[in-house]
Amino acid sequence: MTTDPTRSADPADPAKHPLYPLKRLLEIIAFILIVGGATGLLREWIGWKWLHLFGFFHYVIPTGYEVYGYIVLVVLGLAVGGASETLTRTDKVHR
What we know:
Elements: H1 20-46, H2 66-87
Keywords: Membrane, Transmembrane, Transmembrane helix
Transmembrane segments: 25-47, 67-87
């Protein structure tokens, strides 16, 4: 009988799951994308030009498409965050 390396040895402790470091990395990336997109939208809609949190996204978004680009960043951040939640889920059916 072989053991599945993706299953946690202790289901009560998700930090012992082998994919836990990847989950943490994806959560950090999701946070950066969501906050960067939200602050970019605030800068565009409200006009807060002094708001420079994660301002490096300004160089990634094409000129003239700022609002669309920041919306894409927020949606992408939500998708990455959702994907990170499925990595260490223990209620998955293993066959």
